[in-house]
Design a protein that fits this description.
Two copies of one chain form a homodimer. By secondary structure, chain A is an alpha/beta fold. The first copy, chain A, has 13 helices and eight strands. Chain A has an eight-stranded parallel β-barrel, surrounded by five helices. The two termini of chain A are 37 Å apart. The interface between A and B is large, with 43 and 43 residues.
Chain lengths: 323, 323
């Protein structure tokens, strides 16, 4: 464990932040953000020196009803352009595409016709052939691409190794270490980061990290992963995201020493827009039910249902999760 | 950094948990807990297999007005006995005594006449001679003792080294690594733990850890410190404690593999008593102002005042803290 990179005083220029507030936060409010929220978030990210902003999913309109979700579930080119124009800024724009839930052959147009810079392909290990097909397509269309291999805490080491081998032989630019259940501990994140970096570096790719806050470890795990070699870090404003939420962007900006990063615009955004979003009824963040599913390495769905039903019988939930 | 101890499957019998809910949580409600809360907490700790419970401070009644604080600021022998009788259980009882705020020569009676097992002496580095005097007294009275060296993130390395040397030559049983401002990152905690353990092991003492949650790192830092050799870990129910609060006991019980530990009694306690405590108006836990003081390595007092005044102008606070 001596492969630590960087220190607490200087900065590594390879580290890039990705704001995933709309995409992961959209799972909290079915992507119904106000236009003002999205516009101000975009302007905030530009001012704060954040490198990437993710607008949402490229979800199939055959599979999902456009009347049941806000526009950021689909991220039409026009929707993004209404916010960013031609995006004449240094901020790069991304969308996420889930394997099996995206009509990528129709909906991912050539990058020269799009304001999108990066397409992030989210996949389970068992969907890897579908992911490789999407990576290939997006790469050919001219996009920067990453692959986000989900739920690895529930995958075998053999499946992780095989998945890494496959994506290393693809044209993907970045490989994301994803703690979908918020169940990984920092010492596991260090080992996994070293594994991912070893595989990625051998083929000239970067490693990214996407953590959940079920055990109040999203920030700790993100900075550990960075310290051991990850370059891309996902975060959201005040951790907005499904269930326990994500790594907090304001914490990343406090922690990283890159002088391009500015905390103040983010504080201003939170003060008004995150407060309003919570007042609207959007609920996320660490809570005991999420801690339990995280610690037990389970999908958070039982915890989300428990919260939705306004239950507080924690001890009963724990017995239910164990059985 | 290869001195990791233990793993995620087995357990180390040297690890002991200390419930500091009344003592650190008392800083939130001026020690006004209901008798039922304290009694049920005691019974919960016994059932959960927790090794130590801290009742509060041994504060001087000359310095502090007994009419302005609940009884756990003073921890009279009779107050504790009203809850525990003769404490015919495996749970050991502790109190904290601050250097300069405790009439220890009068108030720390011989241990054979007390239900208290452990006296924890809290000191800043610049109070070390006073701490040594108290350690000596409590040791002579027959107590187990620890020394909690506070605010080390604001002390020089030389002062920390000298303090460690002094306490290593005292009869103290345990030396606590304390992150008073919630400003330490896991990589710093690992280095400090190795330093503390090296000093402590050379003289047959144990190391303890007490972390604050300003940067959502209390749990991460506690388990990192344990992984690198600390034996005693402080935690509180749902993290109850001043400002951002502490490491969550329920998380420690989920994480540690000692089969003596039981999570269910703690969940039941939280369900009723922590919920009631919050409804009473006690406020603690991670929030943006505490993150700022933690990240800037400052005492949380400005953040506490900001919260008390119901301010939400985070950007202004940040500028105030920087100036």
């Amino acid at each position: 464990m001596s492969e630590k990179k960087g220190d607490l005083i200087s900065y590594r220029p390879d580290i890039k932040l990705l704001d995933a507030t709309i995409r992961d936060g959209g799972l909290v409010n079915d992507f119904y953000f106000s236009d003002e929220f999205v516009k101000q978030l975009y302007l905030t990210n530009v001012k704060a020196g954040i490198e990437y902003m993710e607008f949402g999913y490229k979800a199939s309109k055959d599979l999902f009803d456009v009347n049941k979700f806000g526009k950021w579930k689909f991220c039409d080119e026009e929707s993004i352009r209404e916010v960013v124009g031609d995006n004449d800024t240094d901020l790069k724009l991304s969308v996420m595409a889930d394997v099996g839930r995206c009509d990528f052959k129709n909906d991912i147009i050539p990058s020269k016709d799009s304001v999108i810079d990066l397409v992030r392909i989210a996949t389970y290990t068992y969907q890897m052939p579908g992911a490789l097909e999407m990576i290939e397509h997006c790469h050919e269309m001219g996009y920067e691409t990453t692959v986000n291999i989900m739920a690895i805490s529930a995958a075998s080491e053999e499946d992780i190794d095989k998945s890494l081998e496959l994506v290393c032989n693809s044209p993907v630019d970045g490989i994301y270490l994803v703690d979908s259940y918020g169940s990984l501990y920092p010492e596991e994140v260090r080992e996994l980061t070293l594994k991912y970096c070893k595989a990625a570096e051998a083929c000239g790719k970067k490693v990214g990290v996407h953590m959940h806050n079920n055990q109040q470890l999203a920030f700790a795990n993100t900075i550990e992963s960075i310290a051991y070699g990850a370059s891309f870090a996902d975060a959201t404003m005040s951790g907005m995201g499904r269930g326990a939420g994500n790594c907090f962007m304001e914490q990343m900006l406090s922690f990283l020493r890159n002088p391009n990063y500015k905390l103040s615009p983010v504080l201003k955004f939170i003060e008004k827009y995150i407060t309003e979003e919570r007042e609207k009824g959007s609920v996320w963040g660490y809570d005991l039910p999420y801690m339990m599913t995280g610690a037990l390495n389970l999908h958070p769905r039982a915890a989300i249902a428990f919260k939705k039903e306004n239950r507080t019988d924690y001890q009963t939930l724990y017995q239910e999760l164990l059985s």
